[in-house]
Amino acid sequence: MLNHFGVSESDLRKVMTVALEKGGDYADLYFEHTFSNNLALQDGKINRAGSNIDFGVGIRVVSGDQTGYAFVENIGLEEMIKAARTASRIASGAAKTPPVRIEEKVFKNHYPIVNSWENESVQTKMPYLQKLNERIFALDSRVVKVNASMSDSVSYILYYNSEGLLCHDVRPMAVLSAVCIMQQGDKIENASSSRAFRKDVSFLTNAMVEEMAQEVVKNAALMFDAIKPKGGEMPVVMGAGGSGILLHEAIGHAFEADFNRKNVSIFSDKLGKKICHEHINVVDDGTIEFNRGAVNFDDEGVAGQKTYIVKDGILNSYLHDRISANYYGVSPTGNGRRQSFRYMPIPRMRATYMENGNCSQEDIISSVKHGVFVDNFTNGQVQIGAGEFTFFVKTGYLIENGRLTQPIKDINIIGNGPKALADITMVGNNLKIDPGAWTCGKDGQGMPASQGLPSVLIKKLTVGGDSSLRSE
Fold first, then answer.
1. pTM of whole model > 0.90?
2. Residues ≥6 apart with Cβ < 8 Å to 254
3. Which pLDDT band, with edges at 50, 70 and 90, does 65 fall under?
């Protein structure tokens, strides 16, 4: 990988020496070379295609609680030294010497590449978009429009730090998305579907195209029969899979160690304490094969790993980068991630999910006399400090006397993240990691992530339906 970036071990040592010349505690170099492509289909035709190459190195110097950062898009030795000198100005003290020995480390590969996207032409990808379009139209005569898109990328990563660690990675990513618009009389409804994995060309299959077409048509058609229910406090059953967005947004961010180190999170004083039912385990995992959130190593050279955030109902660990781990006196958990070489790494989730419980979804639903079942979310808002959240639910069902009855749509679910976690009384045995193209935003950085959930019963949340929309 040194040859890929045209640098030598001698270059790395020289840049690191400058980075530490003012006495920083720690420094690292993050090289990135990303090839990305995209295609879009509209009105039955591929009408847009594009490619991009991103290339550069980010240099970070940490001194106490402060961080200096600079990046360059030209990685000649002179330019890198200038960037290292800029980053070093955060520190003040006696110069430190980089380690004499550079130790290269190889990590387990969770997303092996056989046929790289770099070797595939547009002509290879176009038939899958066209077939997706054709299948959606063929499944229902009410379909009036389909938008579909595909993106793929390969990122070459080289990482070196002031501890002498050198490692490299090749990270694939592929996303296929579709939006279906249907019309019935004067009513127009829409639904979307996506699949995203860290996969090479093997990502593209006819089976996946068929699965997405069936899913998007089914969900759009359901909307014609759906109603907006009356609002109020009631039990809510979260369906398996995509409902994990609640776990990610309303609870997961509050487990990230930077929020806790700064006493922003509501969980800042809860480490080692019971926060929910003893049968609940919440995991953030970077090791799921081909998963969108998988990392062989994070963007600080720490191995991807499976971290129990909540173990047997007890807050077991925060999600750490190197800075927060040093603050708490623990090992980093492999959650130091960055959008690109232009950004500093910060604690970020990877694949966040709740492990299986011992109930079936049928048993959970049958225990509810009056409530709602929700499984298709769009956007939401969360206050990390207070834990308050509002999520918009695209579709779901009423639960009446233990049965799913009328489809529902366009409602808000409102609550408090920690309280919602504590109010989970039943956990299903049907864990699903959602395969969609989830992107997590934080501090101006967007990162690929995923989440999952078995079906769970939250004994009480506020559902905002028709009653919440009426004016007095």
1. yes
2. 260, 265, 266, 267, 384, 387, 417, 418
3. confident
